[in-house]
């Protein structure tokens, strides 16, 4: 499993170690306020709020405690209490801890997410830009009559902080033995993995995947023995390949670390989008070397190399490394409602919020995007197994844009529904222009933009964004958050299907978040009256 609940026995041992040994670093706390409830007319009310923790993979995380503020007095009188559910959600999705409590009128209420005698501690292979999330919601799923607010406290230890036993920087090696490579354009693509110190240095890909951080790649090799190039040294081209394909992240052509020539030594900082790619990091080693001299009688002779490796324990000793660390990135999102079910033709009113990191404000955003696609077979299987889902390669949008509102024809119910993984609606909000647009089929671009409140609909054959009933709520000229109130509906051919709702953002500096799952919505047939 990708997520492991660290047992009480282990945690007790760690606590005893804390007592007997001064910690390398103090516990790291993150206190975050939340609020949900009725919204100012005409904007949507919310039944939940999420707060996030942006940390690298393999971070020990516990949600220790929180508090609920006294319920305010509503215009209609006093609301005595609101039952509240608190859920801890792992970066890859799925609830790992739940607690029930109540917000009361007039008095605050503190709560602790703990299993006696100690709180649960979790660890996940996945890290930033995917976030740990605590969702506080009304237990009955309804928007409460008054605002519910309070604070959540995260306690966490990133790799390198005691009692997390993983180091702050991982040693990186190739899987398999050192490499022999013929010359004349031959190449090899070994997979990279981290050395797991808990498993006596066994290769562990999960240490360097699915999280942001920085690679530093060094390498050494020897020239194979041959009289025609005896005692000569030759360069190689080494490229770091992003997961899931052959896209080059960075690389260079240079000489072995064992020579006095310029040595191969380059770095690459994993972007938020890189960290969400499925697959493993690899190297592509290319040997273009040939010799043409009196020994070869005027013909090109490929130069072979031996013992290529990215670490060396003899002289000169060196190690390739990966340091997990989170960039400020674009920020974090919240969406409500979640775990939605909607009937064909009925409205699903999302509040999609984005919070940018300090010192930015929400006007530093370039685009916000929301994409709805059919739940794939793999995701559906994982959903029924602890709600675990994997990254899919998304299929091209197979929809069309229409700019006028229109009723669904009755014969649509017999048309073919969405296919596995197909995107049925993809909308983008342009912050600078304050416009919404729809992705256009076959043109690989977004169409014309329209402001919220316009008497038009951004519509595909399967879903509609009703701009007339949608809106944008900023937080002032210097505020960090913006909320998009999106009024959606689904057409008859989507009945009986489940869809993944994904969101993404980019800012004016060109930093992109990559798409992250925000909700799974189920569309059902409308009941006959």
Please explain how this structure is put together.
With 529 residues, the chain is mainly β. The chain is built from 3 helices and 39 strands. The strands form 9 sheets. Strands 11, 14, 15, 16, 20, 25 and 26 form a 7-stranded antiparallel sheet that branches. Strands 28-39-38-30-31-32-33 form a 7-stranded mixed sheet, with no helix packed on it. Strands 27, 29, 34, 35, 36 and 37 form a 6-stranded antiparallel sheet that branches. Strand 31 (423-430) and strand 32 (435-440) form a beta hairpin.
Short recap of the structure:
By secondary structure, this protein is mainly beta.
Comma- or semicolon-separated keywords:
seven-stranded antiparallel sheet; 5% helix; elongated; Jelly Rolls; seven-stranded mixed sheet; Immunoglobulin-like; disordered N terminus; 529 residues; 3 helices; 3 domains; 39 strands
């Amino acid at each position: 499993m990708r997520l492991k609940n660290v047992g009480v026995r282990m945690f007790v041992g760690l606590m005893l170690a804390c007592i007997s040994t001064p910690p390398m670093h103090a516990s790291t706390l993150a206190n975050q306020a939340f609020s949900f409830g009725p919204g100012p007319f005409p904007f949507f009310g919310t039944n939940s709020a999420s707060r996030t923790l942006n940390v690298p993979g393999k971070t020990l995380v516990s949600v220790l405690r929180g508090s609920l503020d006294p319920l305010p007095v509503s215009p209609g009188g006093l609301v005595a209490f609101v039952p509240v559910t608190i859920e801890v959600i792992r970066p890859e999705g799925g609830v790992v801890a739940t607690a029930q409590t109540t917000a009361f009128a007039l008095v605050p209420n503190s709560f602790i997410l703990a299993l006696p005698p100690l709180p649960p501690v979790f660890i996940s292979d996945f890290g930033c830009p995917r976030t740990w999330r605590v969702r506080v919601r009304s237990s009955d799923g309804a928007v409460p009559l008054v605002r519910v607010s309070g604070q959540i406290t995260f306690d966490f230890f990133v790799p390198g902080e005691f009692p997390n036993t993983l180091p702050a920087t991982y040693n990186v090696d190739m899987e398999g033995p050192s490499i022999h490579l013929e010359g004349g354009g031959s190449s090899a693509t070994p997979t990279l993995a981290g050395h797991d110190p808990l498993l006596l240095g066994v290769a562990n890909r999960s240490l360097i995947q699915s999280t942001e951080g920085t690679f530093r790649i060094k390498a050494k090799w020897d020239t194979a023995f041959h009289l025609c190039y005896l005692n000569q040294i030759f360069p190689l081209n080494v490229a770091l390949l992003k997961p899931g394909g052959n896209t080059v992240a960075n690389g260079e052509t240079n000489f072995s670390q064992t020579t006095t020539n310029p040595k191969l030594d380059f770095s690459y900082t994993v972007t938020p989008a890189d960290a969400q790619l499925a697959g493993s990091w690899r190297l592509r080693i290319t040997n273009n070397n040939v010799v043409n001299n009196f020994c070869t009688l005027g013909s090109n002779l490929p130069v072979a190399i031996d013992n290529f490796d990215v670490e060396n324990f003899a002289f000169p000793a060196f190690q390739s490394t990966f340091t997990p660390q989170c960039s400020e990135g674009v920020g974090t999102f919240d969406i409500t409602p979640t775990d939605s079910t909607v009937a064909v033709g009925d409205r699903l009113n999302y509040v999609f919020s984005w919070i940018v990191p300090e010192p930015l404000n929400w006007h530093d955003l370039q685009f916000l995007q929301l994409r709805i696609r059919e739940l794939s077979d793999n995701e559906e299987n994982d959903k029924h197994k602890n709600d675990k889902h994997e990254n899919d390669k998304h299929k091209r949008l197979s929809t069309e844009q229409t700019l006028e509102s229109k009723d669904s024809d009755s014969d649509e119910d017999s048309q073919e529904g969405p296919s596995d993984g197909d995107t049925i609606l993809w909308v983008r909000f342009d912050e600078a222009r304050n416009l919404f647009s729809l992705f256009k089929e076959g043109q690989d671009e977004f169409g014309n933009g329209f402001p919220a409140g316009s008497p038009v609909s951004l519509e595909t054959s399967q879903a509609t964004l009703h701009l007339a009933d949608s809106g944008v709520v900023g937080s002032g000229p210097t505020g960090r958050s913006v909320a998009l109130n999106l009024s959606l509906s689904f057409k008859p051919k989507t009945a009986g299907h489940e869809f993944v709702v994904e969101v993404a953002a980019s800012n004016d500096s060109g930093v992109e978040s990559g798409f992250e799952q925000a909700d799974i919505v189920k569309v059902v047939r409308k009941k006959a009256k």
